[in-house]
Amino acid sequence: MAQQAILKKPVRWHIAVFLAPAVLVYTAIMIIPLFGTLQLSLFREVEAGTIYVGLQNFRELLTDPHWSQSFWNALWNNTWFFIIHMLVQNPIGILLAAILSNPKLRMRAFYRTAIFVPTILSFVIVGFVWKLILSPIWGVAPNLLDLVGLKFLFAPWLGKEEYALTTLALVSVWQFVGIPMMLIYAALLSIPDEILEAAECDGVTGMAQFWKIKLPLVLPAIGIISILTFVGNFNAFDLIYSAQGALAGPNFSTDILGTFLYRTFFGFQLQLGDTHMGATIASMMFFIILTGVSLYLFVIQRRMQRYQF
Amino acid sequence: MKQGKIHNVLMAATVILATGIGSAAAQTVTLTIESWRNDDLQIWQEKIIPAFEAANPGIKVKFAPTAPAEYNAILNSKLQAGSAGDLITCRPFDASLSLYNDGHLAPVQDLDGMKNFGSVAKSGWSTDDGSVTFCVPMASVIHGFIYNKDAFDELGIPVPATEAEFFAALDKIKADGNYIPMAMGTADQWEAATMGYQNIGPNYWKGEEGRLALIAGDQKLTDENWVMPYATLAKWKDYLGDGFEAQSYPDSQNLFTLGRAAIYPAGSWEITGFNAQADFKTGAFIPPVQNAGDTCYISDHVDIALGMNTKTEHPEAAKTFLNWVGSAEFAALYSNALPGFFSLSNHNVTLEDPLAQEFVSWRGKCSSTIRSTYQILSRGTPNLENETWAASASVIKGTETPEAAGKRLQDGLNAWYKPAMK
Question: How many other C-beta atoms lie within 10 A of the C-beta of residue B45?
C-alpha cells in the first residue's frame, strides 16, 4: 500500500502534454465558435447598438409567422431528406455490403471501388453533373428513358415543387451510399468464420443466415451509420446550394436548415445578413442534432445487444 | 566554400531586389477594387485600368472581383476584418446603404465628378433623405426583349409593339414549330422576377408613379396594376420550352444564342455575350404596351457604382479614381467596352454597338423607372425581392394564381413595413 502511494505521487504531466495539442486546436476552432454562436443568438441589433434579448430570437423564430413558416418548412424538408436516406441509402448500403461480402462474387474490389468513388467527389461536381443529367434541354436522362420506352415518366424533376427535394435526396443517396456499404462490409468481414460454420452445421444458410446471424451482429454498425446519416443530413447544405442556389427553389421546396441558415446569416441578393437570427438558426440546428444524438446514445444504444467474439 | 559563395550571391540579390521593390512602392500607390463583375476582368485589365494609369502616373489599380453570388457575404467579412480593397463596387440601395451606415463607405457627394449625375442616377446610392451620396454611379441596365431577327424575317412577323401583337407573334412562332417561342426558365427564379415581372410590370404600374405610390403606401401589391403583370406572366407558360421548370439561366441564354428560341426576355447586360455567341442577327423591342399609343415605361435600373472604403490608406488616390469614374472619358470607355451597361452620367456618350444603341434609344421614347422592389421595400423579413422571385416563378408555372401571389406579397410587406414610418 505504502509503495503504491509513493508511485502515484508524481504528477503525470505527459497526459496533459499529449492531450494539449488536440484540446487546444479543438477548443480554438470548435468549442469557442460554438459558444460564440450560442451567445450571438441571445443578442439583437437595434438602433442604439447590440442588446441582450434572452430567448426572444428563438421565440420569434418559432412563433412569428414569417420566420416560423420558413423554419418549419426547412425542418420538415430536412426531416424528409433524412427519411429518404434512412429508407433508401442505408438498406441499399447494407444490401450492397451483403452482396460484396459473398466470397463467390468476382471483381469485388472493382465494384467496391466504383460504388465508393462518388463519395470522394466534390458536392459542386455532383450537383452540377446531376443538374446536367436531369436537364430537360441538354440532359441524357430524357434520352435514356426514351431508349427503354419510359419517356413518359420524365419530368423536369428539379424544377417541380413536389419532386425536387426527393430528387436531390436521391442524388445525395447516390453519392453517399458507399459509406454505409463500407462500414457494414467491414463489420460483416469481422464476423468470425466459426460462428458462420456453426450456423451452417445447424442448418442455417443463405438468406436465413443473413437475417438470423449476420444482421444482428452488424446492428451496432447500423446504429453508427444511422447517427452519422442523421448528423450529416441535418448539417447538409452544399448539395442543395450547388444544385438549386441559396434560395433553394422552386419556391423554397428544397430549403433545408443549412440553406435557411446561409440566407439568414450571410444575406442573399437584397436580403441583408442578420448575424443574430442566423446564429439563432445555427443554435437550433445544434440543439436538434444534440437531441437526436443524445436520444440515440441514451435510449437506443444502451438497449442494443452486443456480442463478444 | 562554393556553396557559401552562392549563398552570398543570393543574399545580395535578395537585398537588391528588396530595396528595388521598396523604392518603387514609395512612389506608386496601388488601389484595389472589390467587385462582383468577374465577367469584366479582362475589360478592366485591358481597357479601363490602362487608360486611367496612363493619365495618372503614380497610381496603380488592381481589379479584384469575386463571384457575384458570394460578393456581398465576402465583402462584408472583408470589411469587418479590415482587409477590403480601397475602392468598393456598390450594389444599389440597401446593401450599400448599410455599408455606409456601418461606416465602411465614405461620403462622395462633394467630389467634382459627382456634378455629372442627376438625382435618379444618385438615388441608388444615397441616404433615404438624399443628403449623402456614398458611391459614384457607374451604370444602369435596361430591360426589354431581344429577338432573333432571322427567325422573325423567316416567319414574316413584325416587331410587336402592343401586347396583342406580342402574343400573336408568340402564337405564330409556336404554330410554326421550328423555334421555341420564348427562352426563359423558372429554375433560378430570378429570371422570372427580373426579366419577367420587372420587365413588363412598369407598363402596368406606370413606372415611377406606381413605384413611389407603393413606397408611400397609396398603392398595394393587391391592386390591379400590380396583379395584372402576374396575370400576363401566367400566359407565358404556354410559350416556354419543354421542361422550363428546370431550365436555368445559362440554359435560357444558350437556347437563344444557339438559335433555338425566337424571343428572349432580357436585360441589356446580355448584349456582350449575345454578340459573341449568336451567329444570327438580333434586335430588341420595348416591353409591349397594352394598347397602341400608350406611354411606354422601361426599367432602366441603377445597377452598379463605385465607392471608397473609409479605411483606405490612400484616400487621395481613391478620390482621383472616383473623380475619373465621373468623367466623360470613363463614361465613353465603360459604355463601349461593356455594351449593355449604360453610363448614368449626363455626358453625351456615342455607343458603337447597334443593339446597345437600340436599348439606350428607349430612354428618349419611354419613361424610365427602376425595379419596384429595390428601394426601401426589401429591408425587412420577409424579404420582398426574394418573395417576388418565388411568386413570379410560381405564377408562371401555374402553381399560384396572380391574385394569391399579390395577396401573399402584400401580407408579407404589411408584416414589417409601415409607409408612414419610412
Answer: 13
Q: Judge: domain A57-303, CATH 3.40.50.11270.
A: no
Q: What's the pLDDT at B194?
A: 92
Chain-chain contact of B190 with A269 (C-beta, under 8 angstroms): yes
CB spacing of A136 vs B382 below 8 angstroms:
no
| Burial zone of A187 (CB within 10 Å; 0-12 exposed, 13-18 middle, 19+ buried) | buried
Instruction: Please answer yes or no on whether A66 and B373 come within 8 Å at the CB atom.
Output: no
Positions of chain B with pLDDT under 50: 1-2, 4, 13-26, 421-422
Q: Which of A57, A66, A270 is nearest to B98 (CA)?
A: A270
- Tell me whether 0.90 is exceeded by the ipTM: no
Please identify, in words, the CATH class of the domain defined by B141-300+369-414.
alpha beta
Pair type for strands A267-268 and A271-272: antiparallel
CB-based contact B64:B93 (threshold 8 Å): no
Place of cell 453625351: B348
Q: How many angstroms separate the Cα of A247 from the Cα of each of A56, A186, A271, B85?
A: 26, 40, 11, 28
Dist CA B275 CA B362 (whole Å): 20
Q: Provide the residue ranges of all domains of chain B, joining segments of one domain with +.
A: 2-138+301-349, 141-300+369-414
- Alpha carbons A241 and A123: distance in angstroms, whole number: 9
**Rounded distance, CA B300 to CA B140, Å?**
6
Contact B246/A268, CB-based, under 8 Å? Answer: no
Residues forming CATH 1.10.3720.10 domain(s) in chain A:
57-303
Select B2-138+301-349's CATH number: 3.40.50.300, 3.30.70.3090, 3.60.10.10, 3.40.190.10. 3.40.190.10
Q: Do domains B2-138+301-349 and B141-300+369-414 have the same CATH topology?
A: yes
The tens digit of pLDDT for each residue in A232-270 reads 999 999 999 998 888 887 889 999 999 999 999 888 877
Q: How confident is the model over A226-231, as a mean pLDDT?
A: 94
- Set of cell numbers at residue A109: 474490389
* A111-122 burial: b if 16+ Cβ within 10 Å, else e: ebeebbebeeee
Chain A CB contacts of B69 under 8 Å are 245-246
Q: Give A97's contacts (C-beta < 8 A, 6+ positions apart).
A: A180, A181, A182, A184, A185, A187, A188
Looking at CA atoms only, how far is residue A158 from chain B in angstroms?
6
Alpha-carbon gap, residue B258 to B114, rounded angstroms: 42
pLDDT in tens, B375-412: 888 888 888 998 999 999 999 999 999 999 999 999 99
Contact criterion met (CB < 8 Å) for B187 and A159:
yes
Q: What is the pLDDT of residue B27?
A: 65
- Summarised one tens digit per residue, pLDDT across range A263-279 is 998 888 777 788 899 99
CB contact set of B28 (below 8 Å; sequence gap of 6+) = B58, B59, B60
Task: State the pLDDT at residue B21.
Answer: 45
Name the residue with higher pLDDT: A85 or B188: A85
Task: Tell me the CA distances in angstroms from A130 to A123, A163, B184, B187, B387, one per residue in order.
Answer: 10, 15, 21, 14, 27
The string of DSSP letters for B380-420 reads SSS-HHHHHHHHHHHHHHTSS-HHHHHHHHHHHHHTT--TT
Which of B69, B95, B242 has the CB atom closest to A270's CB atom? B95
Residues 6+ apart with CB under 8 A from B362: B142, B144, B286, B296, B298
- Residue numbers in B near A273 (CB within 8 A): 72-73, 76
One-letter identity of residue A301? Q
